Amino acid sequence: MLHLRVISPPELTEKVVGVLTVEAGATNLVVLPGAAREPAGDVVLCDVVREAGSPVLATLRELGIDECGSIAIENVDVTLSRSASRAAAAAPGLAADAVVWDEIEQKTGEETELSGTYLLMLGIATVIAGIGVILDQPILIVGAMVVGPEFGPLAALCVGVVRARRRAIGRALLALGVGFPIAILATMVNTWLLDLLGLVDEGMLLRERPLTDFIWQPDALSWIVGFFAGVAGMLSLTSAKAGPLIGVLISVTTVPAAANIAAALAYGVWHEAAGSALQLLLNLAAIVTAGVLTLLVQRWWWRGRV
């Protein structure tokens, strides 16, 4: 269930209350006249089941509340209320299947900021993975996959494509296009430093690495795994369930592929660098394709239900 806090100009409050009163999926309606100071207006509080979230928010935005007032959305984990149960039963569809578009756009939009934290996290993940591929240690690869923040821009790219948001698409592409090269460069420098310290050497990269050689040897399964990981990742975002996303992060080979590119370039092993680059591109393309298709199917399915 979603909790809405709406700040409405007094002249629009009755329309806002009317929207929330008519909606079967809304409950726990509270109106506080003149309670808001910045922006000034009335405060309207309401709980809305996820199934009704997008229609209600779309109507409020049509009234211009987001321009002349404010709309805040919070997820409610537990609601003990008979009226809330009635609202959930009255709304069509199931909460797990509902996509609250404003929520997912906001959530993924925050992940496309080319911040120092994003670059540092991606760089650290790639450096860890770089050590993992040289040592042929899957545990380091898995750890790097969890640390890597690249799924955020990928999800934002999918949402931007489906919602035709050019700015979101541009920001996501910028985050990916700048982030990965910087992470690869950082991993190359780290590999050289470790080599100078005698901790790694070219022979470790050239030897047989049966536990991690899949990273630079992509095949049809690389696409399949990336595709289904993209589906699962998008479903975890749209359903507001964070648990499955961890599994997604440790099933795609984006960060490890970037790390293997860096290690191979550092030692001039060009065939591994090329194979890793192909692996990276395959995973990125599979995730985006799957994410876009998942959102399109969800939108089609939900429109059919309501």
Give a brief description:
The chain has helices spanning 10-22, 50-62, 65-68, 82-90, 101-109, 116-135, 138-147, 151-163, 166-196, 202-206, 220-238, 243-249, 254-267, 270-305; strands spanning 2-8, 26-37, 40-48, 70-75. It has 306 residues and is α+β, with helices and mostly antiparallel strands. The longest helix has 36 residues, at 270-305.
Describe it.
The structure is a single chain. With 306 residues, the chain is an alpha+beta fold. It has two domains: 97 residues, Alpha-Beta Plaits; 202 residues. The protein is 66% helix and 11% strand. A hairpin with a 2-residue loop joins strand 2 and strand 3. Helix 6 runs antiparallel to helix 7, helix 8 packs antiparallel against helix 9 and helix 11 packs antiparallel against helix 12. It is elongated, with a radius of gyration of 23 Å. The chain starts with a strand and ends with a helix. The mean pLDDT is 86.
Stretches where pLDDT is under 50 for at least 5 consecutive residues are none
Our Rg estimate from Cα atoms comes to 23 Å
Query: What is the subunit organization of this protein?
Result: single chain
Q: What is the tally of helical segments?
A: 14
Q: Main β-sheet, in a few words?
A: 4 strands, antiparallel
